[in-house]
Write a structure and sequence with these properties.
Layout lengths: L8 E5 L2 E2 L5 E5 L2 E6 L6 E9 L3 E11 L25 H19 L23 E9 L2 E7 L6 E3 L8 H16 L14 E9 L4 E8 L7 H10 L3 E8 L14 E5 L3 E5 L2 E5 L9 H15 L6 E4 L6 H6 L5 E5 L13 E4 L11 E5 L7 H10 L3 E6 L2 H11 L3 E9 L9 E8 L1 H7 L1
Parallel strand pairs: 4-6, 11-12, 16-17, 16-19, 17-18, 19-20
Antiparallel strand pairs: 1-5, 2-3, 3-4, 5-6, 7-8, 7-10, 8-9, 10-11, 12-13, 14-15, 20-22, 21-22
The protein binds S-adenosylmethionine.
Length: 445
């Protein structure tokens, strides 16, 4: 039996922020997650859900307000699920991101030196940073609209603009919607089941001013040529247009095999610190161009490379890490996903599918895994290759901490640098430096 039940009203002191941006308080040792409450605040909260090990609540009244509470800058912030921390001072949020990393490690790792966790690398101007939007489209009251989903729900919230998206992404989205109205190409209407465009994906390259558009449809149709012609006439920077299929209008994304190029090139080019990247619509590319440059530079500098070293880029994607480091090392092994294209310019790069293809001692392994953390193959790589250093780029402090619990049996934790890749959200990116313990070096030799 829990100490609270649904609809109970209780006073709570918020101790810290959770990984989804909620305030966390304790009531008779039960953790309660309170949406929109900030660390340091005292609130009267209404319990909305009770689970075995936690409860959820919403703020009924703020009794003591945090000095760091600010007015959100977006009119749909309360409804939209895109941002979670617009009501919190930006620099205070950078401190919270460091704290989120610390609390995640505390859960999994018994003893470590907390001073290894550095301050969060933030943005000078944290607006308009997203270089890509993938937004649902609906026909509402006779008009096409793009929008977002409400927090924790599939309710469509129409928007006209988004202050965290690149400004040209907003402008292109608005042009497409206007042309959809003009040419009677309609967003899906779940009530009438009419219309067929379920979402729009717009990606821009900020350095080279190119743009890519993907129409996601739930029915095989052809987007009229006159719509495409007018779109590229208004926006000559759009050099790549795809159509892709997804039968479930509530799900983001699409089946990569269903995509068809309907105009221009397969890729757009972005440049980070002098390195060009060709990106297809379904390929991973960091969403925040300014922070991506800092992220890769940081990974490189933490590795402290020299021309004698042999390194491994284990989750390479379009190979940003390899491009940043290949000129500073003797040889680089790159593990690619089957769909990723190979860059022929890196003459000391060896593309491999399996670890058994590595014929050298590896000095440094770069991991830049997905949110789910390292795969079994990565742990196998560590136990077989025993690299002297690991540079682990993570976008999820929970899976990072879980992985570190295992890695720290043989490696020493030297440094963690959180980085704000997604301002005004609770997401935390970080880079961790680990070094092989002396005792394990002996075993290898
Ligand atoms: C966070 S992204 C990083 C990609 C790249 N390092 C970058 O910075 O753009 C993770 C990448 O890991 C790839 N990936 C996921 N699971 C993988 C696996 N089992 N083997 C190889 N690559 C994988 C994904 O395709 C994706 O490109």
């Amino acid at each position: 039996m829990q100490s609270v039940k649904i609809n109970d009203k209780i006073n709570l002191k918020i101790k810290r922020m959770g990984i989804n941006g909620e305030g966390i308080a304790y009531h008779e040792k039960l953790a309660i997650f309170i949406e929109n409450a900030l660390p340091g605040e005292e609130v009267e909260a209404i319990i909305t859900q009770v689970y075995d090990n936690r409860a959820q609540a919403k703020v009924y009244k703020i009794i003591k307000e945090s000095d760091q509470r600010i007015d959100p800058f977006c009119v749909v912030y309360e409804d939209c699920g895109g941002c979670q921390t617009q009501h919190f001072d930006y620099s205070a949020m950078l401190d919270q991101k460091k704290d989120i990393v610390t609390k995640s490690l505390d859960r999994y790792i018994k003893k470590y030196d907390k001073s290894v966790i550095q301050s969060t690398i933030g943005m000078e101007n944290p607006l308009h940073y997203r270089n890509k939007a993938a937004l649902p489209v609906r026909k509402l009251y006779g008009k096409n609209r793009f929008g977002m989903y409400a927090r924790n729900s599939s309710t469509f919230i129409p928007i006209d603009d988004c202050l965290i998206q690149n400004e040209n992404v907003n402008i292109i989205l608005k042009t497409i919607i206007k042309l959809m109205d003009r040419y009677d190409v309609n967003g899906y209407d779940p009530k009438t089941k009419e219309g067929f465009i379920t979402s729009l994906i717009v990606r821009v390259s900020e350095k080279l001013d190119e743009a890519q558009v993907t129409f996601v449809i739930n029915n095989k149709i052809d987007i009229p040529n006159k719509l495409i012609d007018e779109l590229i006439d208004i926006h000559p920077e759009i050099i790549s247009i795809y159509e892709a299929y997804n039968s479930d209008y509530q799900k983001q994304g699409f089946n990569p095999d269903s995509k068809t190029l309907i105009y221009g090139k397969e890729t757009i080019t972005e440049n980070l610190n002098g390195h060009d990247f060709e990106v297809k619509t379904d390929e991973f590319f960091q969403l925040n161009t300014i922070q991506a440059e800092k992220f890769y530079q940081q990974m490189k500098s933490m590795a402290n490379l020299n021309k004698e070293m042999i390194v491994l880029d284990a989750y390479s994607g379009v190979s940003p890490i390899s491009k940043y480091v290949y000129e500073n090392v003797r040889k680089i092994y790159i593990i690619k996903d089957e769909h990723d294209s190979i860059d022929v310019n890196m003459t000391n790069a060896y593309y491999i599918n399996k670890l058994s293809e590595i014929a050298d001692n590896i000095d440094v392994v770069f991991f830049d895994a997905s949110r789910t953390g390292l795969t079994e193959a990565s742990f196998l790589a560590l136990s077989q290759l025993k690299p002297k250093k690991i540079i682990y780029g993570s976008c999820n402090p929970s899976t990072l901490a879980k992985d570190l619990e295992k890695i720290l049996q043989t490696y020493e934790l030297k440094e963690i640098k959180p980085l704000d890749m997604f301002p005004y959200t609770s997401l935390v990116e970080s880079i961790t430096l680990l070094e092989l313990k002396e005792t394990n070096k002996d075993i290898k030799n």
